[in-house]
Design brief:
Layout: E1 2-6, E2 9-11, E3 14-16, E4 28-31, E5 34-38, E6 41-43, E7 46-48, E8 55-58, E9 61-65, E10 68-70, E11 73-74, E12 82-85, E13 88-92, E14 95-97, E15 100-101, E16 108-111, E17 114-118, E18 121-123, E19 126-127, E20 133-136, E21 139-143, E22 146-148, E23 151-152, E24 160-163, E25 172-174
Parallel strand pairs: 1-5, 2-6, 3-7, 4-8, 5-9, 6-10, 7-11, 8-12, 9-13, 10-14, 11-15, 12-16, 13-17, 14-18, 16-20, 17-21, 18-22, 19-23, 20-24, 21-25
Length: 175
């Protein structure tokens, strides 16, 4: 299954009443598909309590191009802006700004995924662990990008919190 979103907005949506499982999102939820989101704003979405405020991708091949993920939140949850599980992700000229969570990964949360970020800005996101990004069991490559002004209230990176789960989980490249 494919999903293509272009020149659009996903904003001011709310999901409530579930636990902090890996199901659902305030703005959009994609499961097991190829997803292309271009020239789109994902903004002002939230989930309470729950997993991801903006957009969640599980078992998907994801391309985010010229897209803004901004001002989303996950109250008593993780993955404020975007969450990626068991996915392949490419962000190009994308902004992840001003997202908030109570727990992990205010800007983005990723586990068991392959992530490539190019010309991407991750700024002013706030969470307890990994203000800009919380990365677990994932490979990540960041180039020509900026992570700044993010905040974590507890242990582990205001910009990036990288959790290595095993000896096979060691690839990260930032240039």
């Amino acid at each position: 299954m494919d999903a293509e979103i272009t020149d659009s907005g996903i904003w001011s949506n709310r999901m409530s009443g579930i636990d902090n499982s890996n199901e659902g999102a305030g703005g959009a939820y994609f499961f097991g598909c190829r997803v292309s989101i271009t020239d789109t704003m994902i903004s002002g979405n939230d989930i309470l309590p729950g997993f991801c405020g903006g957009a969640a991708f599980y078992g998907s091949d994801v391309a985010l191009v010229n897209t803004s993920i901004e001002g989303n939140g996950a109250g008593y949850g993780s993955g404020g802006g975007a969450a990626f599980g068991f996915s392949t992700v490419r962000t190009i000229n994308t902004a992840i700004l001003g997202n908030v969570v109570d727990f992990y990964g205010a800007g983005l949360l990723a586990w068991d995924s392959d992530i490539t970020m190019m010309d991407t800005v991750v700024e002013k996101n706030t969470g307890t662990y990994g203000g800009g990004a919380y990365i677990s069991g994932s490979n990540i490559s960041i180039s020509d990008s900026s992570l700044s002004g993010n905040r974590a209230f507890d242990w582990g990176g205001g910009g990036i919190h990288r959790w290595i789960k095993s000896d096979n989980d060691k690839h990260h490249r930032i240039r």
